[in-house]
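Backbone-to-sequence.
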């Protein structure tokens, strides 16, 4: 499975699995089926009501917009409001992500949407397929313009759930300063730890760099190893924030 290296806001590089071309094509087909189903349902409903037959010119325009505007803005709206996922992407467990590790913004999604006709509509997606295969980072033209790609999401059962289960009411946190960290910091730390669980090998310097970034943000200095420090921080965060025992 191809991977892409993304540098997070903590200056830690993490390898993410790129969404496979087959997954992206299948997601697009599922989205197409959703849209066809929507258009068919709306047209049938309005036909049964006699809306098209009884509507004047202005009414016809309104009904036409009702049918085709959601079709036109489907990808943009879903990616903006559902964290880079359309219905097809949700089913295939893939999502849009920025290569610099930051959260994609409306402008990024807009660029992808503007270039979508060239990428996907014209020549039945040939431009997108060729571009994705050629650049090595899973990017179509819209992604190249926006600095994004499409990555595979992890399975629901990950290290954070295991650690949460290990934190009981009698747990004694080590670093109260974890309250200064954001949920995004903890997600990044968990991804670093998950990488070792999944691959069986993780460069210690990656965990060490992540440790340094979190120490600076927390205002602490620890003698713990990179991995042990991250495990402790995640457990402490779960204790304070997820258990509600501040």
């Amino acid at each position: 499975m191809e991977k892409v290296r993304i540098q997070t806001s903590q200056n830690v590089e993490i390898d993410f699995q790129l969404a496979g071309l087959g997954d992206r094509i299948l997601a697009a087909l599922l989205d197409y089926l959703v849209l066809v189903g929507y258009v068919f349902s709306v047209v049938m409903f309005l036909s049964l009501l006699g809306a098209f037959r009884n509507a004047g010119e202005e009414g016809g325009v309104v009904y036409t917009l009702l049918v085709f505007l959601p079709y036109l803005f489907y990808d943009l709206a879903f990616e903006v409001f559902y964290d880079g996922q359309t219905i097809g992407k949700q089913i295939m467990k893939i999502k849009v992500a920025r290569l610099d590790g930051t959260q994609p913004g409306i402008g990024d999604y807009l660029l992808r949407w503007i270039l979508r006709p060239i990428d996907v509509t014209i020549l039945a997606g040939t431009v997108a397929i060729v571009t994705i295969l050629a650049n090595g980072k899973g990017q179509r033209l819209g992604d190249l313009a926006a600095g994004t790609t499409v990555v595979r999401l992890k399975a629901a059962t990950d290290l954070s759930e295991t650690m949460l289960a290990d934190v009981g009411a009698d747990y004694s946190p080590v670093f109260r300063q974890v309250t200064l960290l954001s949920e995004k910091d903890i997600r990044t730390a968990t991804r670093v730890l998950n990488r070792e669980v999944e691959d069986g090998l993780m460069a210690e310097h990656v965990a060490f760099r992540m440790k340094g970034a979190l120490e600076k943000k927390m205002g602490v200095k620890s003698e713990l190893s990179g991995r042990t420090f991250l495990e402790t921080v995640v457990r402490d965060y779960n204790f304070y924030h997820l258990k509600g025992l501040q």
